[in-house]
Amino acid sequence: MLLGACASREAGYGVGPQAERAMFAQQQNGKEPAPDTPGMYLGLIDQMQSQGLYYASLAHIDAYEKQYGSTPEILLLRGDALRMTDQPAAASTAYTQLLKTPLAARGYRGLGLLAGGAGDFDGATKNLQQAAQLAPTDPVTLSDLGYARLRDGDVNGARVPLMQAAQLDQKSVKIVSNLVLFLLASGEQAQALAVMNQQKLAPEVRVAIRGDAARVAAAERARAAGAQTSVTPAASVPSQSGSASAVASAQGVEPAPRLLQRFAQ
């Protein structure tokens, strides 16, 4: 999950490189005729986003809708572009419009990523659970769900979706990294080390994963404290307030763009 940080950071912060690539793409587009079918145009926009050209893709999304109208496919591309250009409110609107379309699973996943990016891992878990129910064999969604549950302090709940994701896609380094995070959170240090060695993860990546494991441990402690206070008599209200503060502290330690790097893009 952590290994795409450089590329994701560029999408979130790298306006300089982003602008250079967009200018290059614009120059290239000026030399070639525009795609003459909706499918070709969608393919072009999707390719631009795969290269990190989210700002430029928004302009082409507007052009597409002007020429061909709105479709679930273009709504999804718009939602992803808005999310990756730090426009969460507009992205949420686009994803919500997908919920009554054949791409509802992608809409719920997008809403889950937005919630996770804001540090709301309970909301992220709920939306990603909906997405996984609609797309039960999508390894990326399962991996995102497992990660959200880890950051929400539900280590046991993360086991099944992460194992499913790892078996469905054994080549994704992000999915494997989430599995390593689960092993560390579960106390399986030797197993986690074996997987990291097998995948030849760089030292800085290992440090980042262990840092995330510390955050998961903090969230798990806060979750346990919250469960304990929920069965305490009403006279113990002050301790419940402290627990809420612990949850807020555990979930709000990082800005949204960095959290988004933890999820698969």
Describe it for me?
The chain is mostly helical. It has helices spanning 5-13, 15-31, 38-50, 54-68, 72-84, 88-97, 104-117, 121-134, 139-151, 155-168, 173-185, 189-199, 203-230, 237-251, 256-262. The protein has a domain at 137-227: Alpha Horseshoe (Serine Threonine Protein Phosphatase 5, Tetratricopeptide repeat). Helix 1 runs antiparallel to helix 15 and helix 5 (72-84) runs antiparallel to helix 6 (88-97). The longest helix is centred in the last third of the chain and has 28 residues, at 203-230.
Distance between the termini: 10 Å
Average residue pLDDT? 81
Q: Please give the CATH class of the domain at 137-227.
A: Mainly Alpha
Structure class: mainly alpha
Q: Secondary-structure element order, as H and E?
A: HHHHHHHHHHHHHHH
The tally of helices reads 15
Rg calc: 20 Å
**Overall strand count:** 0
Which spans have pLDDT < 50 for at least 5 consecutive residues? 1-16, 233-260
Helix content: over 70%
* CATH architecture type of the domain at 137-227: Alpha Horseshoe
Q: Strand share of the residues?
A: under 5%
Tell the overall outline.
Answer: globular
Question: What summary fits the major beta sheet?
Answer: none
Predict the CATH topology of the domain at 137-227: Serine Threonine Protein Phosphatase 5, Tetratricopeptide repeat
In short:
With 265 residues, this protein is mainly alpha-helical. The protein is built from 15 helices and no strands.
